[in-house]
Amino acid sequence: MGADHLSGAAMLRIDGLRKAFGEKTVLDGLAFEVASGEVVSLLGANGSGKSTSLRCVVGLERPDGGTITVDGVTAKPGEAMPTVAMVFQKIHLVPRRSVLDNVCAGALGRLGLSRSWSVLAFPREVQAEAMACLDRVGLADRAREKAGRLSGGQQQRVAVARALCQRATVLLADEPVSALDPAASEQVMNLLRSLADDDGLAVAAVLHQPNLARRFSDRILGLAGGRLVFDSRSAEVTDETVASLYRPALEALEAAESAESAESAEMREYA
Ligand SMILES: Nc1ncnc2c1ncn2[C@@H]1O[C@H](COP(=O)(O)OP(=O)(O)OP(=O)(O)O)[C@@H](O)[C@H]1O
């Protein structure tokens, strides 16, 4: 699984990343790397900072500190690097436009067009590239259909094709399979894996399914409180390691529930 690429230089390097929303520190000096050809999964309880870290990398959030380096080039704070693309749980396609147009939209940045959909037709060479990207994700035969008519799993693959048309070297995926059934999840995870193995992309995915993370990634990063608590090869991540990530959140929930039931017992006593 991508082992050949692991010795390569990092395609994505994050160092000392910090981000706060008001008083709340969400990323507290996060650091990790993803090599070309590698799939890395981010696991952690709700609110541990997984999405925020990816959103900082793609320029959707402006970090308060730290550096993000892509293929040796360090981004200015809040800058969107042209070769970093992201796919989301809620798939952002324009449902009324054709699948092909949605994929062509990946080229808008380098065409110097704003992210507007006013263009009536994309240049022929962009359309040809988009078709090749659609072929890569196995959906060339659906190019002329409206994107909204495709299944969730197919739409996620179209979003991946759009990232390819952007010529991404780093693909970030924020819960890419959380809304998909098991068969579609499998297909999307296989696609991410093969983009790393066969096309040399550096893939970082936030997942809520530890088993998928173990099966499809080279390494798993465990996050808690905006910090890295482990960075291990997938085969070395045990059930106990995973459980320890979620335990504090579970204990906090149990404590809140028992405080609530103690309070209602007290209220019943007074009633
Ligand atoms: N725009 C924002 N404004 C204020 N707080 C935010 C904002 N975005 C995220 N947060 C807070 O930052 C913390 C980390 O959020 P983040 O989405 O990165 O966590 P996560 O690990 O991806 O969680 P989940 O698994 O629930 O998606 C949370 O407490 C969240 O409420």
TrEMBL record:
The source's domain of life comes to Bacteria
According to its UniProt record, what is one Pfam family this protein matches?
ABC_tran
Q: Which residue intervals define the domain ABC transporter in the entry?
A: 12-250
Q: Name one GO molecular function term.
A: ATP hydrolysis activity
Keywords tagged on the record: ATP-binding, Cell membrane, Membrane, Nucleotide-binding, Translocase, Transport
Q: Which InterPro entries match?
A: AAA+_ATPase, ABC_transporter-like_ATP-bd, ABC_transporter-like_CS, MetN_ABC_transporter-like, P-loop_NTPase
Q: Which SMART domains match?
A: AAA (SM00382)
- How is this protein named in the record? ATP-binding cassette domain-containing protein
